[in-house]
Every structure is written in C-alpha cells, then in structure tokens.
Design a protein that fits this description.
Elements lengths: L2 H27 L15 E7 L4 H10 L5 E8 L6 E3 L11 E3 L5 H35 L1
Antiparallel strand pairs: 1-2, 3-4
Length: about 140
C-alpha cells in the first residue's frame, strides 16, 4: 500500500468522525426539544459508517490487493426507541393526562459516544501525521 493511499484512508476516517461528532452535538443541543417540525419530540440521530464506495477500476484494484477504501458516513438514522414521558401538566406540550413526551436522547450515552468518537478522530489524525512525517523523511533522505 502506498503512503498516499494510507493518508486517504486516514483522512476519510477523520471526515467520518467529524460528521459523527456533529450529530452528537446536535443530539445534546436538542436534549430538551419536546416539539419538532413534525410535532413529535426530537429523535436522536446516529451516524452509520461503512466502507467508502469507489468506481469500478478502483474497486478492482482494491479487490486484488484486499485493502480497504477508507470509511464514510453511509447513512444517518434516527433512534426509534420510545420517548420517555414525564408528568408536567403545566407544560405547553402536555397531553390531556398531563404527560410530556421528551426526546429519546440520554446525556450519558451521548457523552460516552463523544469520548469514543473523539478518540477515533485523534487516532486517525495521529496516523495521518505519522504518514506525513514518513513522506517528509523519505524526501529529505534524497
């Protein structure tokens, strides 16, 4: 595997983790949003990562070398877990029995996801910088 390809794979990981971090930030920002455009509470969003797709020629060479193409966000899905209910009859979004449906976002889950995602981001940056240094050392050797 060439160094350029390794840099591209690492950079794709950085880009994917950045998008995942943005979704986590959005989830935390909407942790108290009880009414969205559709009338329901905010639904937690999750990034689904997968192998980056390539054109036919690149796919053929990848299959011959059995290497990865890198990673990308292939979809953003909504968490379909039920909305928790809280009794608050004075809330404007309370139903006839006085219950308010809250978003299905849990701060602890988002914080754990944020730590994991930031570690993955940092690891990809470290790999990228290591490869960059290897390239610089190779050029300066000549």
């Amino acid at each position: 595997m060439g160094l350029d390809r390794a840099m591209n794979i690492s950079f794709s990981g950085v880009q994917a983790e950045r998008i995942a971090m943005e979704l986590i930030a959005s989830n935390l920002a909407n942790i108290n949003t009880t009414r969205s455009l559709y009338g329901d509470p905010y639904r937690r969003k999750i990034a689904v990562l997968g192998e980056r797709t390539l054109n036919f020629a690149d796919e053929l060479s990848r299959a011959q070398s059995k290497l990865s193409n890198g990673v990308e966000v292939i979809d953003v899905v909504e968490d379909m877990s039920p909305f928790p209910k809280v009794y608050n009859p004075g809330h404007p979004d309370a139903d006839s029995q006085g219950f308010v449906r809250l978003p299905n976002v849990e701060e602890s889950t988002e914080m754990v996801d944020q730590i994991y995602t930031s570690r993955m981001y940092e690891a990809n940056i470290t790999v990228f910088n290591t490869i960059k240094k290897m390239k610089q050392d190779t050029i300066s050797a000549f």
